Amino acid sequence: MANKKTPDLMDKLVSLCKRRGFIFQSSEIYGGINSCWDYGPLGVELKNNIKQLWWKSMTQFRDDIEGLDASILMHPQVWITSGHVSSFADPMVDCKNCKMRFRAEEVQGTKCPNCGGELTEARQFNLMFKTHMGPVEDDASVVYLRPETAQGIYVNFLNVLAPSRQKPPFGIAQIGKAFRNEISPGNFIFRSREFEQMEMQFFIHPKEDDKWIEYWKEERMKWYHSLGIKKENLRFHQHDKKELAFYAKKAFDIEYNFPFGWKEIEGIHNRTDYDLSRHTQASGKDLSFYDDQTKERFIPYIIETSAGVDRSLLVCLLDAYHEEVVKDEERTVLKFDPKIAPIKAGVYPLVKRDNMPEIAKKIEDLLRPHFKVFYDEGGAIGRRYRRQDEVGTPFGITVDSQTLQDQTVTLRERDSMEQTRVKIDDLVGILNKKIWGIEK
Ligand code: GAP
Question: Is 10 helix (H, G, I), strand (E, B) or coil?
Answer without folding.
Answer: helix
